[in-house]
Each structure stands twice: as C-alpha cells, then as structure tokens.
Design brief:
Length: 125
C-alpha cells in the first residue's frame, strides 16, 4: 500500500483529504506542523509527501530543506500545498525543490494525477 504523509495544520483540510485519499487505497499518515512532519517523515519514510507551505513551528520550505539534506529522505517526492495561487508562488516552490505544486482548495482529481505521476516516476528509478 502506498504511504502518503500529509503535513497540514488546518483540521478541515487534513480530515477531508485524509478520508478521500484513504478511500482510494492510500495509507495516510498525518502531521499537524512542520516539526512533526519532519519527524514523521523520518519515522515512516513515506512514498510521497503532501506538504503545506504555511505551517506553525517550521514552514514547508524549511521542512523541505531538511528532507533534501537527509540521504534517506531526499528522493521522496514532495508536493507543495498552498492557498497562494500566483505564478511567482509556484515558481518559488519549484525553485526550492518541490516536485510539484497544488493550490487550495484542493481539487482531488488534479492532485491525484500529480501524485500518480510522481509515484510512477519513483517506481521507474
């Protein structure tokens, strides 16, 4: 079963996305802030991480920097999740090293396609 780590501080977003992904067969692990997300990534080594950019304790950019510095986690694909929909926000996230970028409110079919693409890419490496 594909393990997804969802790092999201908004309870409604977290619950909605967790339920919808679980119904599609994903094993979803949850973290509520950046520090917890980094710790959980290290513990569960997910297949993919959905990472909110605006988090308490440690923002998504800082979490990503730590992930990419760790040899065990640097190849895990990470999708940035944010309510900021400007092209400059997207470019900043991709330049920082995120594998993809998705805006809130989440449109599940769009997010699932991005997830499948990244997971298939990882499977062929």
């Amino acid at each position: 079963m594909t393990r997804i780590l969802l790092v999201e501080d908004n309870e409604l977003n977290r619950d909605m996305l967790t339920r919808r992904l679980a119904r599609r067969g994903y094993d979803v692990k949850i973290a509520r802030d950046g520090k917890e997300g980094l710790s959980m990534a290290d513990t569960c080594l997910p297949d993919l991480i959905l990472l909110d950019l605006s988090l308490p304790e440690m923002d998504g950019f800082e979490v990503l920097r730590h992930l990419k510095q760790d040899s065990r986690m640097k190849s895990i694909p990470v999708i940035a999740l944010t309510a900021h929909a400007l092209v400059t926000d997207r470019n900043r996230a991709l330049a920082a090293g995120f594998d993809d970028y998705d805006i809130k409110p989440i449109e599940l079919p769009r997010l699932l396609q991005k997830m499948v693409t990244l997971l298939q890419s990882e499977a062929t490496l």
